[in-house]
Amino acid sequence: MQPQIVNAINTWLLQPVRAALPPLGLMLGLWLMWLPVSAMAQTAAPVVQPGPQAVPGFWDPRRRPDRPDLTRLTVIRFLTETDYPPFNFTGPDGNPAGFNADLARLLCEEIKVTCTVQMRRFETLLDAISSNRGDAIIAS
Question: What confidence score (pLDDT) does residue 9 get?
């Protein structure tokens, strides 16, 4: 081959390849450093599945507790807070409404006892119970 053609091929083809070799070498080096890390991550010890857990049975679902004697109980006075919808709020008719008021009424219906639901500001609920102005607090 003639020297001019060799120089032209060298200039046109090989110099860009040689210029690209250092970044390619760097990329290859980084890849070779990453490969063992990747291999270690993929060959981690298998996770051992725990055996079945024994859950303690604190009650027998077939056994129903005896009903307490509620003959002396005539009214349960529930106290709830005034404004915490949807749990407690004043309904359109002015009566207590919301999840907690409904729950109190359902409890009383279940045990067949009359109940009242009184609304108070949240910070006064404990004082009202302490001064015997209510029997139970049902507030979120």
Answer: 60
Look at strands 96-97 and 89-90 and give their pairing: antiparallel
Q: Average pLDDT for residues 24-40, to the nearest whole number?
A: 58
Instruction: Spell out a b/e string for 94-109, using b for 16 or more CB atoms within 10 Å of the CB, else e.
Output: eebbbebbeebeeebe
Name the CATH superfamily for 75-137: Periplasmic binding protein-like II (3.40.190.10)
CA distances from 87 to 24, 98, 102, 115, 138 (A): 66, 5, 9, 18, 10
- Which pair of structure tokens corresponds to residue 73? 């109980």
pLDDT band of 31, cuts 50, 70, 90: low
d(CA 61, CA 57): 9
